[in-house]
Fold this sequence. Notes:
Layout: E1 6-12, E2 16-23, E3 29-36, H1 45-60, E4 67-74, H2 76-83, E5 89-94, H3 98-104, E6 113-115, E7 118-119, E8 122-127, H4 133-145, E9 150-154, H5 163-172, E10 179-181, H6 182-185, H7 191-203, H8 205-221, E11 228-231, E12 237-239, H9 240-245, H10 253-265, E13 271-276, E14 281-287, E15 290-291, E16 293-298, E17 301-308, E18 311-313, E19 319-324, E20 327-335, H11 336-339, E21 356-360, E22 370-375, E23 378-381, H12 384-390, H13 404-418, H14 422-447, E24 456-460, H15 464-475, E25 478-481, H16 488-495, E26 498-505, H17 511-527, E27 532-541, E28 546-554, H18 568-579, E29 587-591, E30 595-599, E31 602-604, E32 607-610, E33 613-617, E34 622-626, E35 630-635, H19 639-650, E36 652-654, E37 657-659, E38 662-667, E39 670-673, H20 680-691, E40 699-705
Parallel strand pairs: 1-4, 4-11, 5-8, 5-9, 9-10, 13-24, 24-25
Antiparallel strand pairs: 1-2, 2-3, 6-7, 11-12, 13-14, 14-15, 14-18, 16-17, 19-20, 21-22, 22-23, 26-28, 27-28, 29-30, 30-33, 31-32, 33-34, 35-40, 36-37, 38-39, 38-40
Amino acid sequence: MNTPRIRVGIDVGGTFTDAVAVDAATLELLGQVKVPTSHHHEDGVAHGIVEALDRLLEQTGRASTDVAFLAHGTTQATNALLEGDVARVGLIGIGTGPSAVFTRRLASFGKLELAPGKRLPLAYAHVADPQDTSAVRRAVEQLKGDGASVLVASQPFSVDRPEGEQAVLDAARPYGLPMTAAHGITSLYGLHKRTRTAVVNAAILPRMLATADLVDTSITKAGVTAPLMVMRCDGGVMALDEMRRRPLLTVLSGPAAGVAGALMQERVSEGAFLETGGTSTDISVVRRGKVAVRHATILGRTSYLNALDVRTVGVGGGSMVRIEAGRVTGVGPRSAHIAGLPYACFASPDQLRDARVETVRPMEGDPADYAVIDAAGGRFAVTMTCAANALGRVPEGDFAHCDPQTARAAIAPLAAVLGTDVATAATRILDAGIAQVKVVVDAMMRDYRLDKDTAVLVGGGGGAATVTPHLARTSGMEGRIARHNEVISPIGVALALVREQVERIVPGASQEQILAVRAEAERAVVAQGAAAGVEVEVTVDPQTNTVRAVATGATELRTQDRSHRVDDTERLRAAAASLRTDPADVHVLAGTAAHTVYGTQTHRRLRPARRPVRIVDMDGVVRHHAADARVETTTVAGAPELLARLVGESTSYGDGGVRAPALRLLLGSRIADLSGVLDPQPLLALAHSELRTRAADEPVVAVLEVRS
């Protein structure tokens, strides 16, 4: 049997393109390279991608045929929107009577601001009857005359009746312009938001199509036979053809790559991921083993783009210290990189001779309170990295590590100005920077109801050691720096799963309709190359009547990495630590070959006892936390009857409607999460769909949490 040898992840950044090779069986990092991003090459960023791949294969001694998986993440779409470098969109509105009034209002999208002084380039034309081919072609001629190079068709209620938009695209096809229909971007109601999302997608379409073609051609020439995948903004990857249809899915994919790396490599199940660069820190959340995703805000408006919920703070490893009247007043947002200054801690002792503290304006209009050191070797910035190294917080071998003695020498002149010792001055610097990060972390912990007692802080990025360890220390939370933190983003790209999300608004959705949405999502990831381990999570929101199915799967059978496996004692300790109780009070309630369910009992005066539960995998990672749960074991054959009884006993009824229990099934190596469904009948139908392909005697563990 031929085992695929390497998975390659490439992260195209604004300045550098990073690439890694990961062993497909053990997920061990085999090699990493960094090349300048080739924005100005005639082949664009494709040249840098191929150069990085060539160097990576040479470094690891592998051939292009050894590549089992190749994916890349890119900031190109994000940068195009930020810089206003987009195509002119020709929007064809469809309708008569009241519908025409609504579609004509869509012409106002031309007022959307992309960048200061740059608005979304848009031309509008109207067609009353989409079946009138001559009228459609006159509209296209008008839009081409106005400079449009890409077309969008939009009609009210096209989610339910897409024929009109499709007819317009069919009539316009001879003109050879890239085209999209609003219903093809999202199937959610809301003409204005749906069309706006489609228009923004179209604005970057020509540029992204050109890049996709160049990258595809270049990779094929390099001899790689594995299908090329592209990083999505929700933490998964998609096939190149899907990116050609919906390039908007690559917007904000940079932070998504980092958290995907933390999720897969660090096996985080609950916590916050902080990716720290030189200037800023991106903060995102992992809840119950999944990244937190929401509809993104683009161009100042909410969209139907499902993207990682990432919040950015202007504090990074290179953030400069601000002082006034002998005290530290803040850190950032300006960094040494923006000011064009080297870090003081990376200077030599000779360069730091005769040092004195001055304050400067890094850029025109900034306050003149940023501290710098003028010394024998020139001017240097005092940064968060200097403070972290002075306190010994940056481990040896880390990207941000320097000689702690030199770092203390860099802080010493500032400590004298502050009237204190070096350690106290360094602590005050980190305190000032961390305070800003902590506000956002605390807000996200509240928003997603994470338990601080069980959540972990994971730091990634080259500046991880300057933020995460001090935040963990001051907040009392567990914290750690991700392995290979400086390349966590390309690692995330290399390890990411194929992902697709299907959303439908179905009032009073029946179990057949819910299963149909589930099947559509599953088919979509299979069509994009997912061949193993396809999982589908379904959520039904009764308030918005939205049925959402998220499917994920690998492009090849992944060999389980056994290097992290721990014994029963270590798993018990992990559960006890999470439950915050003595291991002697923790009991094994159930288990499968891949997971063990541990529980204890807490007694409360005059109230029923609670049964906290933890699900721990073979690596000793807590995969699920439940404050009060019921656990039952059965087989696939016995599951339908047992689940029907358990769901019936645990369903609550009240003014808020019917609320079935949050159900999770342990099946083989999986935890099937069915907690997103509130109606008992669709819940049981989904449970049956999870069981249908399994052997009758296979064990099944059900974990139920009653909803109040």
